[in-house]
Amino acid sequence: FSPNAKQDCELIDKRLFAITRTNEKTGQKIKVRINVSKEDVEIFDTGVDIIKGSKINRGYVMKPYEILWIQ
Length: 71
Description:
This protein has 71 residues and is an all-beta fold. It contains no helices and eight strands. It is 0% helix and 46% strand.
């Protein structure tokens, strides 16, 4: 994934730091979701967490301080 990819910050929930990175040449997108709170946070993204290799479905509940890289 290109280090020069476009990066957009998103306001999803005040407990999340959310970025979507887009490689404009290939169209590849990576969504980064970081739970910066001590609370569980439900997200509505779908895809695969490329760090753990686990599937992320709508309604996934992020644990406190959990980080996801979703493709």
